[in-house]
Design goal:
Blueprint (H helix, E strand, L loop, with lengths): L5 E3 L2 E3 L3 E3 L15 H11 L5 E8 L18 H17 L6 E7 L31 H5 L1 H15 L3 E4 L6 H6 L12 H16 L7 E7 L21 H13 L3 E5 L7 H4 L13 H18 L5 E3 L9 H10 L5 E4 L1 H5 L3 H6 L14 H7 L11 H9 L3
Parallel strand pairs: 3-4, 3-10, 4-5, 5-6, 6-7, 7-8, 8-9, 9-10
Antiparallel strand pairs: 1-2
Length: 398
């Protein structure tokens, strides 16, 4: 089933394999792809994946997590045009249809170089203290639709097939969804908390072609207790009531593809990246986290049967990776399967699978070294199988 074609709106996707957005923190300081960035995406191109979902691309300089985060702007759009051309060429040279390319637009908010937060969050700030001066004003939030629309226009000019309005993992648009205690027009009620995202979504829709893929990678639950997290109750239990309401509104506005995620990698990485080895002992088994992913995806697909959904969280499975991906599709939990960490570790996993040469020993071992590199200000990649990142990990004594 994973080899079957699928339509997203009027766009045909060659198969059900999606390379998930994985930040490499390896762009040039002007936001353009560096040699490391290019090499990474060309390896994805040769994988045979139907969709390559580009990593988080900041819509403005102040919204970057670091000085090497991707940022499309008028000064570097040609570099993106060239990269997209090379990706499509590499795919066809490898015997595959050109993949559809989606750019993930974001504002890093709390994780920006200078933090920009929606409200004071005592749960997150127990780990990383903040100040009132970091709270963004309503006037600043008013400027975001124009910023997202401008980035979307540049993405169209560069040749992308779609845009992802990112709202997950604790970044600014996601944090606004849980701004229950914020005053003003962007806090309190559901209508206020979703206002900024919907305004940005509408602004993007107004400037992209009719057949453009309007996508969203949404954190349906932060798995942080209300009122400090979205998609949960006061005890921190999963509650998809508002998430479903939000997605329903987006489908009515033109959402064509939903990419499911949960948790916050800066706070509870075991939720959205179940691991074997990590920076701490997880309070639940990986199997519990994987089942949660399955249950959330299945529930969303049941609620929105006509909305194509990308499932997440399969990289943990290693030897059984492709069997689990097929199971998700056959069970009707999702329409596409997203591969994140595993695509970094073993980018040729799908082409090897097609050729009957899939090797579980090359799969991601969920050791979290790629994240450790990122958190320590380095470029990020697989420090287990890629010699460049392995040597970097050793040099930095991480």
């Amino acid at each position: 089933m994973i080899q079957e074609k699928m339509r997203v709106g009027n766009v045909e996707i060659a198969n059900r394999v999606v390379i998930q957005p994985m930040e490499g923190c390896d762009c040039l300081e002007n936001g353009a792809p560096s040699e490391l960035t290019v090499n990474k995406y060309l390896s994805f191109a040769k994988s045979g994946a139907g969709i390559i979902w580009f990593e988080a691309c900041a819509v403005c300089k102040e919204g970057r997590t670091n000085v090497r985060q991707m940022n499309i702007n008028e000064g570097n759009v040609d570099a993106f045009t060239n990269l997209l051309k090379d990706i499509r060429g590499a795919a066809t040279d490898a015997g595959f249809p050109a993949p559809k390319l989606i750019l993930q637009l974001t504002h890093s908010g709390r994780q920006s170089i200078v933090p920009m937060i929606a409200y004071r969050n005592e749960v997150y700030e127990a780990k990383r203290p903040m100040k009132d001066e970091y709270i963004v004003s309503d006037e600043y939030l008013d400027t975001l639709p124009e910023k997202f629309a401008k980035a979307a226009q540049l993405a169209v000019a560069a040749g992308f097939d779609g845009i992802d309005m990112k709202s997950c993992h604790g970044y600014l648009l996601q944090e606004l969804l849980s701004a229950y205690n914020r005053e003003g027009k962007y806090g309190g009620s559901f209508e206020n908390r979703t206002r900024c995202y919907l305004q940005c979504f509408d602004a993007i829709k107004a400037v992209v072609p009719k057949d453009f893929i309007l996508a969203a990678r949404i954190g349906l639950s932060d798995m942080v207790q209300k009122p400090f997290g979205f998609g949960t109750d006061e005890q921190g239990n999963l509650d998809l009531t508002e998430a479903k309401r939000f997605v329903q509104i987006l489908t009515e506005r033109g959402l064509k593809l939903l990419n499911v995620t949960i948790g916050n990698p800066y706070f509870n990485p075991h939720i959205n990246r179940p691991f074997r080895v990590g920076p701490y002992k997880a309070p639940e088994s990986a199997e519990t986290g994987l089942k949660r992913f399955y249950d959330v995806e299945k529930e969303m697909k049941k609620t929105f049967p006509d909305l194509p959904i990308v499932g997440s969280g399969v990289s943990y499975y290693k030897n059984d990776l492709m069997e689990q991906a097929e199971k998700l599709l056959c069970d009707g939990a999702c329409d596409f399967v997203g591969f994140g960490r595993n695509a970094i570790a073993y980018p040729e996993f799908y082409v090897d699978y097609l050729a009957g040469k899939f090797d579980g020993k090359k799969c991601c071992v969920t050791c979290s070294k790629c994240t450790t590199l990122m958190r320590n200000g380095c470029v990020s990649g697989c420090a287990t199988f890629n010699e460049y990142y392995k040597d970097l990990f050793k040099r930095e004594k991480l």
